[in-house]
Amino acid sequence: MKIAYKTDKGIFYKGTIEKVLASKKFYKYKGRVNLIFTSPPFPLNRKKKYGNLQGDEYVKWLSELAPLFSEYLSDDGSIVMEVGNSWEPGVPVMSTLALKSLLAFLEKGDLHLCQQFVWNNPAKLPSPAQWVNVKRNRVKDSFTYFWWMSKTPYPKADNRKVLVEYSDSMKNLLKTKKYNSGNRPSEHSIGEKSFLTNNKGAIPSNVITAANTHSSSDYQKYCKEKEIQLHPARMPKALPEFFIKFLTNKNDLVLDPFGGSNTTGKVAELLNRKWISVEPNDDYIKGSIGRFDKVQVSSSFSKY
User: Fold this and answer.
1) CATH number assigned to the domain covering 2-164+203-293
2) Which of 125-134, 205-214, 215-224 is predicted least confidently?
3) Contact indicator for 258, 281 with CB cutoff of 8 Å
């Protein structure tokens, strides 16, 4: 483990997460992390450049990280993890490996599942191509799960921090102050004032729609100038932004154990949170430097 670079709010460590969490130099963070937000390599049936295990080996690897993550998590902290879908090889059947992995992670870490979220990526290419494009017997697989987990059923969280703009009909309702109250077929009884209070926004759902199609970001420009390979699975900023706002306060500490191109660190810094990212790949770390204006690169880590 070594420090790759620092910013005003964060530190990027070079190394595998297993070795970093086991390092005595990292022990100072135990019980201090308010949010672990991450997207580990997916359990795909096809090997990717960023590394991924398969089958029972993947389940074992991911679940054994859970107790380590818990050690570093504050008592009211949260873990938010994305695990993508995978398909059985050679047949149009989805694999249950992602769900098995998440369930094993929950059990091994003695964690609570606070809520399940869905990330809908409308820009995702049609896949699996064999069944969607060629055979035409499946539709595009365009979503992944985010599981929000914690050591307590009542972690720090406030949905007032992530309110979305009211719909036009709701704006009109607040303006006219006229609502059809009374009993509903669902047997709910809606009071006259139930929907007439202006809360400055609507409560968002657990389905987040965000495309990862940015083509002119500072990160991409920097990588192009320095001839650094782009990370192949970059996350849109809207995802860490939502969970960091929802589950943390200013100056809280956010950890991304699979830092990649460090979208999490960048968003955390913009939101005035402290951050730590961990990544073993030199190119991904060097490219992530382009996300920040002021970076102090370690003398032990060469910069392009």
Assistant:
1) 3.40.50.150
2) 215-224
3) no
